[in-house]
Structure prediction request, 311 residues.
Amino acid sequence: MEKKEFAFMGKVVNGFLMLFVLLALLIASAVLVVINCDCSNALQISVVVLGSLIFLGALFCMTGFMMLEPNTARVMMFFGKYRGTFTKTGFFWVNPFYSTKNLSLRARNLDAEPIKVNDKSGNPVLIGQVLVWKLHDTYRACFEVDANDNAMDTKQSRMAFYENFVKIQGDAALRKVAGEYPYDEADGQASELTLRGGGETINKELEEELRNRLDLAGIEVVEARINYLAYAPEIAAVMLRRQQASAIIMAREKIVEGAVSMVKMALDKLSEENVVELDDDKKAAMVSNLMVVLCGDDTAQPVVNTGTLNM
Prediction:
């Protein structure tokens, strides 16, 4: 989206110099009024009126001072028309007819509380995010989002409005992204991207979704990451048993695969080195015994055969 902000090009005077001038005018006008306060002739009356006007004008000009800290900005408006954004640091004086809005351009954190959403499979999950953001377009921040300016007299209240805006849009973006992916792999098969295993891919998609939503308000997303992910309490115990069962099945498959390779190696060695001649029945019995020993949960108890191989 095109940036509509531009720098303020109006007249700006050093604040300390203008303060000295205005104080001098206030003192001088006050002295003139006091000296001629008896108003005995027309000249004195004119001097008193002139001094009063100068005094009131200097007081009015006192409202034109503004002080900016690093990474803060003033949106300058002249009778409702946007005249630019002033970002220089220091103490300055501008035309008091300019109205200003004070904004902070510093980075802010949002550590959102986990919210309950449904993943792609329909399972309820708890998911939270941490977000770093800042204002980068003061025009859109002030004029593209509707806010009650009368209730935002200070910079703190105005920035609180943006924090609430970011929180609401952040929750909406998080719900959208979470609903596009399952929480975990189905039956241990890595067939698609998941919330638990997506890592940087999911975070980048979340950042892009947030940028699309917050750019309207002139807000830049510096970083967004999922910082909490878990099944909702009502299904957490069931899904834990499912994960445990999947892990047991995968472990058993690995054990059987290893046992089969060991049995094959044993039979091949016996045959190659002519240690013993085994018919099919004896091979079947040997395979059965080795598979029981290698795949069993408990330690095998040896049985000594004192007869012949045919017994």
